[in-house]
Amino acid sequence: MGNQRIRVGIVFGGRSGEHEVSLSSAQGIIRAVDENKYEVVPIGITKDGRWIAGGDPMQKLRAEAGQSEALTSSSERAPTEASDPLLAPLEPRRAPFTTPHSPLDLDVVFPVLHGPFGEDGTVQGLFELAGIPYVGAGVTASAVGMDKAVMKDVIQAHGLPTLDYRVVKRATWEADPDGVMAEIEAGLPYPVFTKPANLGSSVGISKCRDRTELHAGLTEAARFDRKVLAERGVNGREIEVSVLGNDDPIASVPGEIVPSREFYSYAAKYLDDASELLIPAPLSAEGTAQVQELAIAAYTAIDCAGMARCDFLLDRDGGELYFNELNTIPGFTPISMYPKLWKASGIPYSELIDRLIQLALERHADKQRSKTSFDVSEAK
Ligand SMILES: Nc1ncnc2c1ncn2[C@@H]1O[C@H](COP(=O)(O)OP(=O)(O)O)[C@@H](O)[C@H]1O
Ligand SMILES: [Mg+2]
C-alpha cells in the first residue's frame, strides 16, 4: 500500500495568539490519522512566520514556545503578535511547500491554524495559488467568518437572527468618542458588549453596563483592530453546533458551555479550567432542531466548506435564539467541542479527520470542473 497513501500536510503553529492551541490540535490530529490511508507530513510555522518542514517541526515549535509554558502566558502576546508584518518563506526564492532537497509533493493540506493568518483566508489563498487541495473553508468564507462585522451583515442579509450591533471605525472613535457613544446608546440598551471585529478567544471583549464602561470597552477593543463592534448584550446560554460538509452540510447534536465567569471570557476559556461542557445541550427536541437548522443556514450563508463550529446565544430572559459567530477552524484536540460534538453524534475523531480530508479532495475536484478561460468564439 505504502506509496499509494495520500500525503497530507498538517500545518500548525502560526503567527496568531492561538499558536499553542494549534499545536495541541495538530498533535491530536497527527496521532489519530489513519496511517494505512494517509502519510502525514508535519509542517510547522513559527511565531515569527518561518515555515519548518522536514525533521520534527512539532518538537521544534514546542521547544521555541518553551514546552512548559501554559496558555496563560500567551494572553498578553496574542495581540502584538498579529501585527508583526512578516511572511517568511523557508529560503529566498523557495515556496513554503518545498524542502531544501525536493518539493513536498503534497496531495492535500490540513491547516490547523486558529485565528489571524490561519483561519482568515490568508493561508487559504496561498494554497489556492499553489493549486493544493486543503481542508476547510475557502478564501471568502474564511475571511467572512473571521470578520465579525461582515459576518453579521451577511447573516442578517440572509434573514437569520443576530443581536443588534453597531460597527465603529477606530478613526471615528478616536475623532469623536462622545458622538460614537451617544449613537450607540441611542440604539442599544445596556449592557453592551464591545469587541474587536477580527480576533478570537474573547481577547479585547468587554461587557459594559454604563457609559464609563462603554468608553473603557471601546478603547480596549480599538487596541486590537481598526474596526470594533458594540452589540446588545443578552443573558445568554452558550449553545454550539458542529457543522460538517460541502454542499450538503450536516449538523451535530448541540452542546452547551457553562462558563466559569460572568461571560465566556479569555480567563474562562483558558485560565480557570472550570467551564463546563454539556453534551448534548439540555434543549427540547424543537430547540435542538432549531439550532441545527440555524447552524446549517449560517454555514450555507457564508458559503462555508469542510467544517465550522456555529455558536449561538440563547436568551434566558426572552427565549430567543441568536446566531453569535462561526469558527471555520475550531479547536480540534480530541477534547475540544467540535470533535466532541461529532463523537456524540456518532462520528469518532479519526473518522472525522478522514471525512474532512475527503471533503477537501472533493471540493478541489469540483472546483477543477469550472472553466478558467472563456473563448470569444463562444460568445453569443
Ligand atoms: N452580545 C452578547 N451578549 C452576551 N454575551 C456575549 C455577547 N457577545 C459576546 N458575549 C460573550 O463573550 C464571549 C466571546 O464573544 P464572541 O463574540 O464569541 O468572540 P470570540 O470570537 O472571541 O469567541 C461569548 O462566548 C459570550 O460569552
Ligand atoms: Mg466565541
CATH architecture of the largest domain: 3-Layer(aba) Sandwich
**CATH class category label of the largest domain:** Alpha Beta
Label the structural class.
alpha+beta
Order of helices and strands: EHEEHHEHHHEHHEEHEEEEHEHEEHH
Helix content: 25-40%
Taking Cα atoms only, what radius of gyration do you get, to the nearest Å?
Answer: 21 Å
Q: What is the total number of structural domains?
A: 3
Summary of the model, kept short:
With 380 residues, the chain is α+β, with helices and mostly antiparallel strands. It has helices spanning 19-32, 57-65, 77-82, 122-130, 139-146, 148-157, 170-175, 177-187, 211-221, 266-271, 285-301, 337-344, 349-368, and strands at residues 6-13, 38-45, 51-53, 108-112, 165-169, 192-196, 206-208, 227-232, 236-245, 250-251, 255-258, 276-278, 306-315, 321-327. The strands form three sheets. Strands 9, 10, 11, 12, 13 and 14 form a six-stranded antiparallel β-sheet that branches. Strands 3-2-1-4 form a four-stranded mixed β-sheet, with helices on both faces.
How is this fold's topology laid out?
Blueprint: E1 6-13, H1 19-32, E2 38-45, E3 51-53, H2 57-65, H3 77-82, E4 108-112, H4 122-130, H5 139-146, H6 148-157, E5 165-169, H7 170-175, H8 177-187, E6 192-196, E7 206-208, H9 211-221, E8 227-232, E9 236-245, E10 250-251, E11 255-258, H10 266-271, E12 276-278, H11 285-301, E13 306-315, E14 321-327, H12 337-344, H13 349-368
Parallel strand pairs: 1-2, 1-4
Antiparallel strand pairs: 2-3, 5-8, 6-7, 6-8, 9-10, 9-11, 9-13, 11-12, 13-14
Bound molecules: adenosine-5'-diphosphate and magnesium ion (MG).
